[in-house]
Amino acid sequence: xxxxxxxxxxxxxxxxxxxxxxxxxxxxxxxxxxxxxxxxxxxxxxxxxxxxxxxxxxxxxxxxxxxxxxxxxxxxxxxxxxxxxxxxxxxxxxxxxxxxxxxxxxxxxxxxxxxxxxxxxxxxxxxxxxxxxxxxxxxxxxxxxxxxxxxxxxxxxxxxxxxxxxxxxxxxxxxxxxxxxxxxxxxxxxxxxxxxxxxxxxxxxxxxxxxxxxxxxxxxxxxxxxxxxxx
Length: 231
What we know:
Layout: H1 2-5, H2 7-13, H3 17-35, H4 67-83, H5 102-131, H6 135-148, H7 152-167, E1 172-173, H8 175-190, H9 200-208, E2 212-216, E3 219-222, H10 224-227
Parallel strand pairs: 1-2
Antiparallel strand pairs: 2-3
Helix pairs in contact: 5-6, 5-7, 7-9
Organism: Eudromia elegans
Domain SBF1/SBF2: 99-231
Protein name: MTMR5 protein
C-alpha cells in the first residue's frame, strides 16, 4: 500500500524532517494496531488472606449457595456469549494496485548500481595485482580501493577475494604484499558498523589468523597482530 499510494507523499516530504517523523508515527500506530487489535484484558486480583487468619475464632461459615441463582447467572453469561460478535476479526481481502513501474525506480538507482559494480571490480583487480606482485598497478588502484571500503558491498567483496587466496595456499606473503593486505583490512574494519560485526568482521577473523609473513627464520608475524585494536 505504501508503494502504491504514498510515493508522491514521501517524495514531497523528502526535505522536511517534521513531516517525515509524523508519517513514521502514523505508520508505527498502524503497525501496532495490526499486531495488537484487542485492548489488554484487565485481570481481577483476588487478595490473599493475611498470615494467621485461619487461627481467628470469629470465622464466619461460608454461606450456602443458592442453586437457582447460580444457574441463572450461568444462563445469562451463555446468552451473552451467543449474541457476542466473533472474537477474531474476519480478514478483509483487498486488491492493492501495483504502484509506479519498477523501471522508474531502477532508472534512478541505475547509476548507483553501475558505480557499485565498478568499485567491486577495482577491489578485485587491486587484490589480484597484490598477489601477482604487480605492485605499481596495485599502488595506482589503492586510493580508489580505500574509498570503496565505505560501502558494505566492497567490504564483503574484500573478504571473499582474500578467502579465495587463502584457499589457494597463498597466505604467506612478502613484506610489500603483507603491508597492502593489512592496510585494506584495517580500512575495512575502520568503516565497519555494529551491523557488520557478525558479517564482515566475523568473515575477517579466520583470514587474519591465516595471512602472515616471515620476519626471520623461525619467526612469523600473523595479520591479526596488526588489526587487533579494532572494536
